[in-house]
Amino acid sequence: MKDIDAATRTELEAAAFRRLLEHLRERTDVQNIDLMNLAGFCRNCLSNWLKDAADAKGVALSKDESREYVYGMSYEEWKERHQKEASPAQMKSFEESKPGH
Fold it and tell me: Is 83 helix (H, G, I), strand (E, B) or coil?
């Protein structure tokens, strides 16, 4: 990647990010708590990072808008359709590995 110009690198990174979002939208069976426990981030983290980037650039993007972009629908709709209650084992794992963000 070091020989790729900055504009092309940004395009490749953006394409990879869009692919990640597409993958997460398809994998509604993977709960956010599972992502947090295994990887230390979840869909909400991605939406927060997107909003942080927009804020840094002075681009108006609300928390709800960034979540809708990441989830492919409103957060409330996603929770109604796909979110399950966390099991005691999931919660225990989360408490043990709780990321600092």
Answer: coil
72: region left, alpha or beta (phi > 0 left; psi from -120 to 50 alpha): left
User: Given this model, what pLDDT does residue 96 score?
Assistant: 85
Domain ranges of the chain: 6-97
H helices present in 1-101, as ranges: 6-26, 32-39, 43-57, 63-71, 75-82, 88-97
pTM of the model: 0.87
Q: Identify the CATH class of 6-97.
A: mainly alpha
Alpha-carbon distance of 9 to 2, in angstroms, equals 9
User: Could you say which residues of the chain have pLDDT below 50?
Assistant: none
Would you state the pLDDT for residue 101?
58
